[in-house]
Amino acid sequence: MLKLIGKLLDDPCCRVVVVDDGSGPAYREYFDALEIFDRVDILCHEFNRGKGAALKTAFKHVIRRYPGTSVVTADSDGQHLPEDIKKVYAAIQENPEQLVLGCRTIRNGKIPFRKRLGNILAIMILKIFTGALLKDTQTGLRGIPGKWLDELVTIKPNGFDYELEALLTCIANKRYPIAEIPINAIYDRGSSNSHFRSIHDSWKIAEVFFKRKYHIKKSSNGDSAA
């Protein structure tokens, strides 16, 4: 994380918001070390609240401190290279009216089988339910228009299902056009520390589709959809 942030801050226009999602005393030294940087805002949760909650905490901070600013979300566990983050940043700066997805090559042998399978299934189900064909529905590397942050903090899920719910909201409301740019898939470092639980979190992601399917079916019968 320290190396990643140091490389990102080579750009004098870059500011980084870090969320410590209840990592605990054992990891305090790493967050304390960030104080050497003058363009890093550190936000802390007392306990682990989930990736969605961490993202919403960051978005609320940006809305309050840097209103109207577009953001790039990136994992800090080594899966996103600085150059890929900068590519997404450049794309959202060039066109702040689009949602930018950093897309991995799903059939890349470097991606663990369980993650490849989950993403392929999500792509298929997304196509069936929405007609949208995306290359990577679960990427954590995203460029997000500043105008959309107010809505993103109201989305309910707090876990790994949050990012998919946000993507479906964008597609359903035709909020912003979606641009996809290729990025590297790095899983030879850091991924063993992921909090993603294959069965539990994959099911919660699947529930997002089923709930939306129910709402669509209900509204087609003349009732109001949630």
Describe, in plain words, how this protein is organized in 3D.
- By secondary structure, the protein is an alpha/beta fold.
- The protein has one domain (2-219): Spore Coat Polysaccharide Biosynthesis Protein SpsA, Chain A (Alpha-Beta Complex).
- 43% of the residues lie in helices and 12% in strands.
- It is built from 8 helices and 6 strands.
- The protein has helices at residues 2-8, 28-32, 51-65, 82-94, 113-130, 149-152, 161-172, 198-220; strands at residues 16-21, 40-45, 71-73, 99-103, 142-144, 178-182.
- It has a 4-stranded mixed β-sheet, with helices on both faces. Strands 1-2 form a two-stranded parallel ribbon.
- Strand 1, helix 2 and strand 2 (40-45) form a beta-alpha-beta unit.
Give the SSE layout.
Layout: H1 2-8, E1 16-21, H2 28-32, E2 40-45, H3 51-65, E3 71-73, H4 82-94, E4 99-103, H5 113-130, E5 142-144, H6 149-152, H7 161-172, E6 178-182, H8 198-220
Parallel strand pairs: 1-2, 4-6
Antiparallel strand pairs: 3-5, 4-5
Helix pairs in contact: 5-8, 7-8
CATH superfamily label:
Spore Coat Polysaccharide Biosynthesis Protein SpsA, Chain A
End-to-end Cα distance: 39 Å
CATH hierarchy: architecture: Alpha-Beta Complex
Low-confidence stretches: 189-193, 195-201, 214-226
Tell me the Rg in angstroms: 18 Å
SSE arrangement, N to C: HEHEHEHEHEHHEH
Quaternary structure: single chain
Helix count from the secondary structure assignment:
8
Class from helix and strand fractions: alpha/beta
- CATH topological fold name: Spore Coat Polysaccharide Biosynthesis Protein SpsA, Chain A
Q: In total, how many beta strands?
A: 6
Helix content: 40-55%
Silhouette: globular
Q: What proportion of the residues form beta strands (DSSP E)?
A: 5-15%
How many structural domains are formed by the residues? 1
CATH top level label: Alpha Beta
Biggest sheet features: 4 strands, mixed
Give the averaged pLDDT, no decimals.
81
Strand order of the largest sheet: 3-5-4-6
